[in-house]
Backbone:
């Protein structure tokens, strides 16, 4: 018996993905497309700002990191690992994001001996990132 080539496994995976895509409902396809677009935008923005920071064109300063952290927390609060009742309501997602922010600010940073530990401004900036992400998602999902 001849060993299988990597190309064979790639074709098999693509066929499997195509058949799964055909079985999705239109609403699920739209939700998946919006999620992919949102993640791609977030990754693009992060990589662009990281590249600019390396070139010292724009400093990757504290406020931009905190806003990105808030956006990331909001996206994490939308994942399937969160109970459906929490992830489907704005208040639930906001509570999860803010809880993560407070735990990081008051538990993790002091353990790392951060000199600027427990700064309220960081929590507010993460809340801004969370609210901006909520607004972008609301705009993307408004046209169902």
Residues:
């Amino acid at each position: 018996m001849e060993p299988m080539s990597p190309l064979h496994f790639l074709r098999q995976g693509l066929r499997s993905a195509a058949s799964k895509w055909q079985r999705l409902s239109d609403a699920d396809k739209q939700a998946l497309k919006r999620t992919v677009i949102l993640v791609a935008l977030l990754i693009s923005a992060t990589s662009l700002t990281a590249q600019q920071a390396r070139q010292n064109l724009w400093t990757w300063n504290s406020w931009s990191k905190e806003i990105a952290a808030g956006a990331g927390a909001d996206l994490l609060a939308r994942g399937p690992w969160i109970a459906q009742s929490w992830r489907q309501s704005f208040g639930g997602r906001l509570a999860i994001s803010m809880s993560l922010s407070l735990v990081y600010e008051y538990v993790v940073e002091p353990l790392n001996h951060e000199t600027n530990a427990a700064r309220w401004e960081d929590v507010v900036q993460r809340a801004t990132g969370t609210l901006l992400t909520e607004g972008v998602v609301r705009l993307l999902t408004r046209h169902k």
User: Anything to note?
Assistant: The CA atoms of residues 53 and 59 lie 5 Å apart. DSSP finds six helices and no strands in the chain. The radius of gyration is 20 Å. The mean pLDDT is 76.
